[in-house]
What does this fold into?
Amino acid sequence: MTGKEDAPPPGRSVRESEIFREPPGSGNFSSSIGASVGIELFQGRGRTKRARPSKTIVEPAREVQVLAETDVLVVGGGPAGTAAAIAAARLGADVLLAERYNHLGGLSTGGLVIWIDRMTDWSGHQVIRGLGEELVDRLPKDAVAGPPRADWGGRDAATAAYWAQRTAAYHGIVTWSPTIDPEALKTLSMQMANEAKVRLLLHAWAAAPIVEGNTVKGAIFESKEGRHALLAKVVVDTTGDADLIARSGAACDTDIDAGDIHHCMNTAFLFGGVDMERWLRFRYKEPDAFASFMTLGRERVKYFEKPFVSWRNDVALFLGPRLAGYSAIDVEDLTAVELRSRELAVGHLEVYREAAPGFADAFLMLGAPQIGVRHSRRLVGVRKVTRQQWDGGHVFEDEIGVSPSLSPKIPNISVPYGALVPERFDGILGAGRHVACDASSHTFLREIPQCWLTGQAAGVAAALAAASGTPPRHVAVRSIQRELLRQGAYLSPAVATPHSQFGENDRSRSLVKSHATAT
Ligand SMILES: Cc1cc2nc3c(=O)[nH]c(=O)nc-3n(C[C@H](O)[C@H](O)[C@H](O)COP(=O)(O)OP(=O)(O)OC[C@H]3O[C@@H](n4cnc5c(N)ncnc54)[C@H](O)[C@@H]3O)c2cc1C
It folds into this structure.
């Protein structure tokens, strides 16, 4: 063999590793979930990606048939898109919701992310309300597991310890962060979309936005029929990756918090046939045996994950192992993560069946149909949520919702409408995990309740913009807030009450005017 043949193939080198987290109590609040459950660093695994050919081809121009014209086109039927579509339709807009897969709910159903993060603040007050609350409340009773309302915000040590083992208590405080049956949420999401008269288009992949000047007018879709155009007065990008916003040419942020889990990917999985109550007794009452079991797991599969409870005792949820070093907008990386996650799921099954109490009869019930992407791009908005705002409890005058904070030491976080409005482009809003924020704030703004929150607000704003024929950035902030309150959303008292600190006149202005005077 020549020296040349010995050389590694040219291409990008990727280093895969689980990500390190500081232990709870370290004062690093960058991850609500990560900080509480603890994530460990194992040895990284390197790989080289094959270089791509430098060739290009010219795709011939063609006429594309218009499939539909609508007031509001929502692209992506995850938590944000489902909420956006229903909220806009409830305002009387003609709404078309397009989704590439066969279901609604995105990662909260197809991604098996069935642990809904906290909807209450640290006093037990539910601050994620509106459509998010309605979705959870309308699920059948046996499709939701979590603490009773009377316990939310409770600090009783025994109760908090019980719920801490079941992902519903942090910092010694019981929270409303239930686990849900993903199939029930799929069914309910479709039912609520139908009730609101949202037109659904499933199996439709948005390939490109239709842009005239600086205004988005719709999107081109690929389906089994080939290529089609959908035209709309306002488009809401809820793809999770800001696909349409990015392809319009708008700026996106991609920086990450390297010490957090928010940039990790993996495909979640469920084991059936387990006894989670037995597992929890083992994990918390037999620490030495538990430590030995974890050592065995690491020896066998290296990246080794602990299960979370689900909505049923006989189903265990695995939201990891989390894999760092991959890009969610690189098709070869997406493929590699699927292969690696499957390998790890099967490896886990062997170890758990062999040695974990409660798992002797476990079987791999389901590998998530949707890959678990936590972060790819975030839109550059008129405003953004930042780490600097956390401590002072700053309330934006264009607030469209309130997120629980990561620690009882930090007040609730005000989310501005400007975080949904791309800085430069009109005719399009973004909601869900790609809203405008810094990398630290992305840690919690990407969570399912927060995606319901921003989705509902985007839907309301899009419907108002379409009805009045104004660009979304010119819709009066007060009219968005008024409709959100009417739809049951929660806003800070400073903006929710008629004689608030901002006053009626301030908020009857549009975002653009109020932004000019913003601090
Ligand atoms: C492994 C993992 C664990 C997590 N743990 C938690 C947790 O415990 N609690 C919590 O609350 N959150 C958790 N999250 C975060 C949360 O699940 C997501 O951030 C949230 O679901 C994002 O919602 P979304 O609507 O913005 O996007 P998604 O849920 O990703 O939905 C986007 C939808 O758009 C569709 N779509 C995308 N591109 C296109 C296109 N081009 N054309 C047509 N359709 C398209 C997708 O198919 C999908 O249905 C976790 C995430 C991951 C990956």
